[in-house]
Specification:
Blueprint: H1 2-30, H2 33-36, H3 38-55, E1 57-62, E2 72-76, E3 94-99, H4 108-114, E4 118-120, H5 127-141, E5 145-147, H6 166-174, E6 178-183, E7 199-205, H7 215-240, H8 248-266
Parallel strand pairs: 1-7, 2-5, 2-6, 3-4, 3-5
Antiparallel strand pairs: 6-7
Helix pairs in contact: 1-3, 6-7
Pathway: Lipid metabolism
Domain Phospholipid/glycerol acyltransferase: 72-186
InterPro entries: Plipid/glycerol_acylTrfase
């Protein structure tokens, strides 16, 4: 049944994306930029709805009160394609730094260009990266929210964290709050497979880390706070969804957490 529901969901998900892009493009490109964001946000909500109705996956968000006003860096854990779109409706005017090749994709690249996403050549250095930082500072000054995945790429649930120091450099140079976000959508929408799993999970928005800290101290704090919340949610999510298949990385981390608790209790 999970296989059938997963296939049905994937067909509906991509059909929903393609049809909306084609049908709504004339409206989207005629609207003012920020007002036009309602269209991709509506797609995000409809995709979440499809996953709930077809697969049976639901989620809730804790800590929305921690989201500040104006410009800031939104720094979520990255496990799944789910976390690239599902939280868009909760942000006022988000912007991504994208691989420049994504901007060349018909329709998608045009949509991203309309929202003034920031393309970057990941192999670039020097002046190109200075220009990217300048553009990023400009959009933040306009009150937009920069979405940055601190680990850079998708990581399986429970995997050893591999944070990139670039987030600390951005924190130092951009002088805005950073909002860490912990969650485990990768348990329900795993990477590198078409299967989708039913169940319920939480997204936890942590208090912002205000600007002004030393970059190294910020980096250590970001990792510690995000990973502590991530461990708590991993334990809670697996306990709440006893029939959920657990990937090896999550099983190992769960064993480490339980082992640390036993050692602490017997010390």
């Amino acid at each position: 049944m999970i296989t059938v529901r997963s296939i049905l969901f994937n067909v509906c998900f991509y059909a929903n994306l393609i049809i909306r892009m084609i049908v709504l493009s004339p409206i989207y490109f005629l609207m003012p930029r920020k007002a036009a964001y309602a269209i991709p946000k509506s797609w995000a909500r409809s995709s979440v709805w499809l996953m709930e109705k077809i697969v049976g996956t639901t989620f809730e968000i804790e800590g929305l009160e921690n989201i500040p006003k104006g410009g800031y860096i939104f720094a979520p854990k990255h496990q799944s394609f789910w976390d690239t779109f599902a939280l868009l409706p909760y942000l006022d005017d988000p912007v991504y730094i994208l691989k420049r090749e994504l901007m060349w994709i018909p329709l998608f690249g045009w949509y991203a260009g309309k929202q003034q996403m920031i393309p970057v050549d990941r192999g670039a250095r020097g002046k190109v990266m200075i220009d990217v930082l300048k553009r990023t500072r400009e959009v933040l000054a306009k009150g937009r929210q920069l979405i940055v995945y601190p680990e850079g790429t998708r990581r399986p649930p429970g995997a050893e964290p591999v944070y990139k120091y670039g987030i600390a450099r951005m924190y130092r140079d951009l002088d805005v709050p950073v909002v860490p976000v912990a969650m485990h959508p990768g348990l329900f929408w795993p990477r590198r497979t078409f299967l989708r799993y039913p169940g319920h999970f939480k997204v936890r928005v942590l208090p912002p880390i205000e600007p002004g800290m030393d970059a190294d101290a910020f980096f250590a704090r970001l990792i510690e706070e995000t990973e502590r919340a991530s461990d708590e949610l991993l334990v809670e999510t697996i306990a709440r969804n006893p029939n959920l298949p657990i990937p090896p990385s999550a099983a190992r981390r769960l064993a480490e957490i339980n082992g640390a608790k036993i050692a602490s209790a017997t010390a």
